Amino acid sequence: MKLPRSLVLILLFAALPATLCAAWITDIVVMSSKGAGAVNFSHYTHLEAVGNNCPSCHNGIFHIRPEKNPVATMKDMAEGKSCGACHNGQKAFSVKEGCSSCHPTRDIVFKNADAGDITFSHEAHTGMFGCSECHPDLFLPGPGNQRRTMQEMEQGDSCGACHDGNAAFSVKEDCENCHQM
Ligand code: HEC
Ligand code: HEC
Ligand code: HEC
Ligand code: HEC
Ligand code: HEC
Ligand code: HEC
């Protein structure tokens, strides 16, 4: 009888001491989503947290072949799928909070030689808005964004979607609120 390759691997994991496996598996696996960019999952941290036990995740929660894992939304996770199987506030911190533990964000600098560089602070904005207010419709959470002119912003693109003098200070004034002059 010929066993599927993935089953052979799992049987192998079960038979070998997991610490042996841990030395050759990739520590960081990257899962990316359109709405929130890349999430780095650490095997080593988790092997410590769940007691060197591969079958606690494979293949019940995650298949070891990434293409076999359906993309999960945060809603799926809140219902116990994917990371949410453990990150439910009981086995581990909940997916409903601590967003930045899994989705670290940083300050973004837009270089501008003429008008001065602009620093966008995630920290200042994520206190007021969820990721989906901006991603992926206004800005892709990663490379590939089209550069915008101030004129386009005045018409409601990019920062101008909120910085219209109504929801937030306007792109038509207070240039130095954004540009380091
Ligand atoms: C706490 C959960 C968890 C545990 C425990 C775990 N893994 Fe994973 N593993 C994952 C996740 C999440 C992925 C990424 C899945 C994806 O990309 O869809 C992954 C991916 C993999 C991959 C594919 C990596 C790649 O680069 O494509 C292999 C191989 C793997 N794990 C082996 C192991 C082995 C061997 C063990 C035990 C020593 C183990 N895993 C323990 C969660 C876990
Ligand atoms: C335990 C880790 C973890 C926590 C905590 C977490 N996320 Fe996620 N999130 C992920 C992973 C992993 C993905 C990608 C899943 C995939 O590709 O299958 C994701 C995907 C997303 C997405 C894109 C999919 C969707 O639901 O639209 C958004 C937006 C998002 N997260 C926002 C958040 C916010 C906001 C919080 C806090 C309330 C949060 N996440 C907390 C791990 C986490
Ligand atoms: C089998 C259970 C299990 C699954 C599935 C799981 N985790 Fe965890 N995770 C834990 C435990 C246990 C801890 C440690 C306790 C805590 O921090 O609450 C932890 C801790 C973490 C931490 C904090 C540790 C650190 O080094 O920063 C992050 C980040 C994290 N998990 C991300 C994820 C992501 C992303 C996924 C899904 C791709 C995931 N986890 C799936 C059990 C799990
Ligand atoms: C008020 C709008 C706004 C909100 C809310 C927001 N972001 Fe962003 N994000 C941006 C902008 C602007 C960029 C930079 C786009 C560019 O490079 O052109 C960015 C870039 C990113 C990037 C790519 C960073 C890099 O290193 O290149 C990631 C990942 C990201 N955001 C994740 C998140 C997550 C996760 C949340 C929610 C916790 C979030 N963002 C909330 C506006 C926002
Ligand atoms: C809400 C923040 C914000 C305010 C306020 C703002 N800008 Fe900008 N500006 C930006 C960002 C971000 C970019 C870069 C956009 C990109 O690369 O996609 C930019 C780009 C520019 C550019 C280069 C693109 C172009 O339109 O030629 C000039 C010049 C400029 N700003 C001048 C100004 C002046 C003058 C003011 C005041 C009347 C101003 N900006 C107010 C955020 C702002
Ligand atoms: C989803 C709406 C939204 C978007 C998109 C947005 N902002 Fe804001 N921003 C706000 C609000 C609301 C405030 C706080 C109210 C105010 O200061 O008028 C704020 C405050 C700020 C501040 C002052 C707080 C701080 O960081 O010190 C700066 C600077 C800023 N935004 C820059 C930007 C830039 C640059 C962009 C585009 C890359 C941008 N914002 C996109 C809503 C937004």
UniProtKB/TrEMBL annotation:
<protein>
    <submittedName>
        <fullName>C-type cytochrome</fullName>
    </submittedName>
</protein>
<keyword id="KW-0732">Signal</keyword>
<dbReference type="Pfam" id="PF14522">
    <property type="entry name" value="Cytochrome_C7"/>
</dbReference>
<feature type="domain" description="Cytochrome c7-like">
    <location>
        <begin position="119"/>
        <end position="180"/>
    </location>
</feature>
<dbReference type="InterPro" id="IPR029467">
    <property type="entry name" value="Cyt_c7-like"/>
</dbReference>
<dbReference type="InterPro" id="IPR036280">
    <property type="entry name" value="Multihaem_cyt_sf"/>
</dbReference>
<dbReference type="InterPro" id="IPR026352">
    <property type="entry name" value="Nanowire_3heme"/>
</dbReference>
<feature type="domain" description="Cytochrome c7-like">
    <location>
        <begin position="39"/>
        <end position="103"/>
    </location>
</feature>
<feature type="signal peptide">
    <location>
        <begin position="1"/>
        <end position="22"/>
    </location>
</feature>
